[in-house]
């Protein structure tokens, strides 16, 4: 009777025998080979039981629901791309080249830490093999009492003089080590499980927590760096000034006078509404217009163009011809 119970616990025990050698069952998801074709040895990632996607021959892994990760990557690339395309050229030519360089270093560090967090194994524990699960079931069964009450699925260990209770994972068929938890999204037991982060598309655990912390730290610096430019432009909006006028100090030496800035509406709200909510002005260059043929209009004679740099003869001789 116990043997029948042991056979029900290991995953894959109910699988039907396939055309493998000696009637061994095929792994889940494997395609049976055609007659006469040489069998390619399967890699472990091809039959991995968790809910993960693998890329580059199993070198990179990601959670199955990775749409939010693509959104995170797209937002970082879009906002940073706009900053590098529009703000950095002006800041490099009018202020200092150090601002774009620092922003570029932060940007590449953020992207590197994000990819390391997303595509790295967070510390997944392999599931027990059928023989290991059967042996563990025998041990659990031997620890039970003679009554019909099922044995406890816990185990106690001592860590630094503290008793820590280990829980049994019914999916992975093993006692989870300390600080290990089973992720319901990825369907894996992860060592030192912190949380499943949809923004990075992966679990955060023992093997990628340092990259996750470096990602959020560098992203905060990059965000603060870009946010400083946003605050600067908000100050310029409140005064109805342009960056060029503020850097050149066009109205800074006249702020005590009555006409410090002739373009200001004397109100922060009015200045912001005038710039952000004002009407769109039509284009004046007519980019899609057709070039009109020359009408043969004679150009002005050279003698009729007044010369502003040279003096006339009458002014030189005092009006004497």
Walkthrough of the structure:
The chain is of the alpha+beta class and 321 residues long. Among the domains are: 47-123 and 193-248 and 262-277, no CATH class; 126-143 and 151-179, no CATH class. Helices cover 38% and strands 11% of the residues. The chain has helices at 2-8, 67-94, 98-119, 130-143, 209-239, 243-248, 268-276, 313-317; strands at 52-55, 60-63, 154-159, 162-169, 174-175, 181-183, 188-190, 195-197, 202-204. The strands form 4 sheets. Strands 3-4-5 form a 3-stranded antiparallel sheet, with no helix packed on it. A hairpin with a 2-residue loop joins strand 3 (154-159) and strand 4. Pfam families: DHHC (PF01529). This is Palmitoyltransferase. The chain crosses the membrane at residues 68-86, 92-115, 211-236. It catalyses: L-cysteinyl-[protein] + hexadecanoyl-CoA = S-hexadecanoyl-L-cysteinyl-[protein] + CoA.
The coarse silhouette is elongated
Provide the structure class.
alpha+beta
Tally the beta strands.
9
Helix-strand pattern: HEEHHHEEEEEEEHHHH
Radius of gyration (Å): 37 Å
Q: Quote the distance from N terminus to C terminus.
A: 136 Å
Return the average pLDDT rounded to an integer.
Answer: 75
Strands of the widest sheet, in order across it, are: 3-4-5
Instruction: Assess the beta-strand content as a share of residues.
Output: 5-15%
Main sheet characteristics: 3 strands, antiparallel
